[in-house]
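Worked problem 6 (solution included).
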Amino acid sequence: MIRVLQLLTSTALGGGPRQVLHLVRHLPADEFQVSVAGPPDERFAEDLRAVGLEPAVVRVDSLRALPLTLHRVMGLVRDTRADVVHTHGKGAGFYGRVAAKLAGVPAVHTFHGIHYEAYSLVGRRLYVALERAMARITHTVINVSETQDLEALSLGLARPGHSKVVVNGIDFAELDARRRSGRAELDLKDDDQVIGCVARFDPIKRHELLVDALAIVSEGHPKVVLLLAGEGPERARIEAHAKLKNVQLRISSAATAWKTNLYATCDLYVASSSKEGLPLAPLEAMASERAVVATNVSGHKDIVKDPDTGLLVPPDPQKMADAITSLLNDPEQRRRMGKRGAARVREQFTLQSMVARTAEVYRAAAASGRATRRS
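Solution. The predicted structure is:
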């Protein structure tokens, strides 16, 4: 039995928690025993309890409480008798990997996006230096896309031979089982043209770019409505910006996005991020047979095949508006893109592949740990 401790910086709606939930549910139970720790989030905890797992609560998002937090994480490693520590996010990546090193346990770290551009020049240098040091004590760094893997290796955030690409996978059965929200309950009319985006309200998601593009689109399409789903610190600012631009806006909660298939309500899915690892929401939109318009940035380029499954555009409101308008005016093209997108996800972004490749990493890490202890 291989005991794996999953340590998360955030348990809110996002790629890391979703991946951990999938691993908890689908790793072979006769081979892996998984424990999960991270900050409290009742929705995430309920999903874990549904499969018989009670998460440990630990906050690892700050270095201010370094000695105490490191002591607590070392206690988790000891109490779970972990054979492998798998970390997600910056804080968890630091505390989990240092604790694993001190305990003589191999560590695996997943980058769900490499984000440091918003830091000051000194902050960027410190971040890169710290991640390079962490890479030296990490058995395997997992990157969620080929583009991100190249970036991590070029920056020294992963070591050659100790880096694996494991793309995010979509659970089609789960997606199909989600309740489909009717337009009426989302305050949408039958003839509204709905542009959807599921993403936390964070500066890197560039919601204001999407709002600006929709303001242009609405000049020729007065029935266009922007449907956003998520939570985060940018929500009030984006709501105010949409009001200023006279964009019809509907906002759904993250809980709704977690439990329902909002993509089926949309005519088109649009992602405006400035950078991504490998976002799940556009993949789920494609799996739901929706065409995608996305900014031509890392992460999106690994998902959207332009012009087969969607359109990639520069982060420019006019160019994004032109792409959205062209697809709103061509329902048949949207349908064809949606069909091809679903086929692409079924072929290259399956949950089964993600779980199997992650299990391989765990086996190799656990074997390395056993060999080290024997020697």
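Discussion: The mean pLDDT is 94.
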